[in-house]
Amino acid sequence: MYEMEALSDLHSKRLFFKRIFGSEDCCPNVLKQISNKILRNVEASHWQLSAYQVYYPLEGMNSILSLSYNDLPPNLKTCLLYLCIYPEDYVIERDILVRRWIGEGFISEERGQSKQEVAENHFYELINKSMVQPVEVGYDGKARACKVHDMMLELLISKSVENNFISLASHSQTDLAKCDGFIRRLSVQHIDLELASILANEELSHVRSLTVMASTCIKHLPGLVRFEALRVLEFQDCQNLHEYDMNGIDKLFLLKYLSFRGTDMLKLPSGVLRLYDLETLDLRNTHIEGLPTGIIQLVKLQHLLTGRYPYSGTAHGKTKIPNGIGTMKNLQAISGFNIIKSSLCAVEELGNLTVLKDLILQLDSGGSLEYKRHEEMLLSSLCKLGTCKLQSVWMYSNDSTSLQFLDSWSPLPYNLQMFQMTTDYYFPMPKWIVPALTGLAYLDLNLIEVTEEGLRILGEMPALLYLSIAFKTVQKERLTIKDFAFSCLKRNSTLFLRTIGNVQFT
Known about the structure:
This protein is of the alpha/beta class. Among the domains are: 12-39, no CATH class; 240-505, Ribonuclease Inhibitor (Leucine-rich repeat, LRR (right-handed beta-alpha superhelix), Alpha-Beta Horseshoe). 26% of the residues lie in helices and 17% in strands. It is built from twelve helices and 19 strands. It has helices spanning 9-21, 29-44, 51-55, 58-70, 74-81, 94-104, 115-128, 150-163, 193-200, 344-349, 371-385, 452-459, and strands at 92-93, 133-137, 143-147, 167-169, 185-188, 209-212, 232-235, 257-259, 280-282, 303-305, 333-338, 358-362, 392-396, 418-422, 442-447, 466-474, 479-481, 495-500, 503-505. The strands form three sheets. Strands 4-5-6-7-8-9-10-11-12-13-14-15-16-18 form a 14-stranded parallel β-sheet. A three-stranded antiparallel β-sheet has the order 1-3-2. Helix 11 (371-385) links the parallel strand 12 (358-362) and strand 13 (392-396). Helix 5 (74-81) packs across helix 7 (115-128) and helix 6 (94-104) packs across helix 7. The model is unreliable at 46-56, 310-315 and 498-502 (pLDDT under 50).
């Protein structure tokens, strides 16, 4: 028999901080004193701990986590508590979470900042305070997602039950029986006949958000007609959704956020067209290929997201831009629309979306004779949008459709921060890519050839953090990138020079 000795002070400290905060360096200054006190108590008591006890000093860790939680301001506390709607080890996308927070009414404009900006700041504050773990850190050093530590999740679930904030239904637990009063928010991660029976006897007219991640037996979930106070409704990756009773969706007059993302939905329920307060409609990675004409009645819509496009691999966008989209003046982000399948009138109307910030479009020509007219209309719209608030453009194609028309983008899109093309087409260095674009931080494009002049221009871009270039032709002459070029490129960013030839850094 091997008698396991207690860990040394140093290793105990390392394990303690790693378990709670991820590493020694991540312990907030305000918590260092109490952490050291807990460690001293362990040493003074001469605890003979088993490996299991060493790894799970629950009382000490829970006291630190509770202190961290209680020390948060009320707005951050609410936003953090909301994360317990997600299951353990779930990767929570920043953009989705931010839109949900706004839809719930947690976020208000502050000191000239929009709700979107305030919500994103809250997200990063929770990361900086080590309340959540950053995931998918991007080229700009900012996390695109987060995860909740399992012990933090336990605390949040406990606080949520205590405050009747969120009711959970999962394989491991169901909090409905503990619910004191009305159910405010319901997260369904598993549903069966037993749970369906419990819900059938609950008062659901006060539920503000419904999140369903269960893929089976969804038909047993009570119909939407009983959830009349919903502000947020999400069916995440639910299969067999066609079996669920969508009747009554048109009565959800308070609904701000609606997502069918990742489901097997074939057609948008007609009742959605009467949700006049809707701000986000997420149809990504569904089988929906067409939107009803009445979609333009949703004039408060800010995010209209469609298309099937994994971020690595082939993208697919078959949805037509709805005619009359120009009347949807509040749109800030649209994605997944196919330019060629859309009418010329609809492509032209894109230019009327003066607050649009993020644009993702597909440009497969498919041999269409009308393509030239479509590209003229798209260029016209881009020129208009470039003078407004456009910050991000991603154009993708599954063939070598020409993007040469982009060379004529004028006037300069001064607010542009990100430009990406995913296509087999290669074009000359665009004339509009110049150092005067002081906000352009991400650039991904295909060039026929590269010249020292082209590299000089790119090297002088003052905000460029990430650069990816693919060259098509054989590079015969050696090119030199001189000192002080690309001064802002981050270490974890990439300068891809995919070419046959010589490129030398000096």
